[in-house]
Each structure stands twice: as structure tokens, then as C-alpha cells.
Design a protein that fits this description.
five-stranded parallel sheet; alpha/beta
Length: 176
């Protein structure tokens, strides 16, 4: 059962059928991003469980993970590290291939983005199949840092992405 605050956020989510391809129902979060109170609430609900966890860095997956990730990093008074698609970072990178609900891709992170042993909170907007976040976790581990948890605004439970991320802790604000 969703709390009244969660219900108010869920009411702003629009479903877009057959996007980005036929058979996929896209969860459009742009109404949440456009509403200052809703955006603030979403960030607080995502950040609050980690306020005393000693997070050193927040890693955000391109592209909507940047939106929540930078705001969460600011709320936790720590740095932000972007994880990007191929060809977007200017210096040497480490990379991991992954599968999406609707295709394949690759993620990159600067080789020196994380210090060994850094405690990392990984953030994205939606947990679907878990492929994107599994790649983020692998990048964090390759950097010899510690993946504390994966945090999402929305989780699509029927796609079972949470299971793919075990044993990393997973939290999400809204579950559909």
C-alpha cells in the first residue's frame, strides 16, 4: 500500500504505450520533474534512507539517473559520478556491456572517477530488467569501490530486475 505522499507522486506518472518500441509501456516521469514539490519529495524519499550510511559518491546512469543522482548527491553532501553511453566521456574509461528491456548498450565511467574503497550509492530513475544498474554495479566494482545500494524512483516489479542486482541492496520509491 502506498503512503499518501507516494500516491501523490504515482498520480503524476504517465504511461506511454509502445515506447520506445512496440510492447513496452514507458513510465513518463516528466510531470514529476516539472512539479517543484513533487521533484523535491522524490529526491528526499530516495536520499533519506542513506543519510547516515557514509556515502562517498553517487553514481548516476545516463540519462535520467543524472537528474536524480545529482540532486541526491547534493542532499547527501557527496560527489556525483556520471556513467555514460559510449563516446561521451573525454578521458580514458572503463566499460561494461549490458542488455536492456528493448536492446543492448554499453556504459562507460572515467577510470579515475572513484577512489578504491569509496562507498557508492547508485541511482537511476527506473528499475526494469536491471541490466543498466547491473552494469553500473560492475563498473563500481572494477574501480575497486564498494556498491552500497541501488536506488530508483520507480520499480517495475513484473520485470524482476531486483533479483539481477542481488546481493546489492535495492530501494525504490514507487513500485508498479
Amino acid at each position: 500500500m502506498k503512503s499518501p505522499l507516494e500516491q501523490s507522486l504515482a498520480a503524476l506518472i504517465r504511461e506511454v504505450p509502445d515506447f520506445p518500441k512496440c510492447g513496452v509501456t514507458f513510465k513518463d516521469i516528466t510531470p514529476v520533474l516539472a512539479d517543484p514539490a513533487a521533484l523535491s519529495l522524490a529526491v528526499e524519499l530516495m536520499a533519506n534512507p542513506w543519510r547516515s550510511a557514509g556515502v562517498d559518491r553517487v553514481v548516476g546512469a545516463e540519462s535520467r539517473g543524472f537528474i536524480f543522482g545529482t540532486a541526491i548527491a547534493q542532499a547527501l553532501s557527496c560527489g556525483f559520478v556520471p556513467v555514460r553511453k559510449p563516446g561521451k566521456l573525454p578521458r580514458p574509461t572503463i566499460s561494461v556491456g549490458y542488455e536492456l528491456e528493448y536492446g543492448k548498450n554499453e556504459l562507460h565511467m572515467h577510470e579515475d572517477a572513484l577512489n578504491p574503497g569509496a562507498r557508492v550509492l547508485m541511482v537511476d530513475d527506473v528499475l526494469a530488467t536491471g541490466g543498466t544498474m547491473k552494469a553500473c554495479i560492475e563498473l563500481v566494482r572494477r574501480a575497486k569501490a564498494t556498491p552500497l545500494a541501488a536506488v530508483f524512483f520507480i520499480e517495475i516489479e513484473a520485470l524482476c530486475g531486483r533479483a539481477l542486482l542481488a546481493p546489492v541492496e535495492v530501494s525504490s520509491v514507487l513500485r508498479f
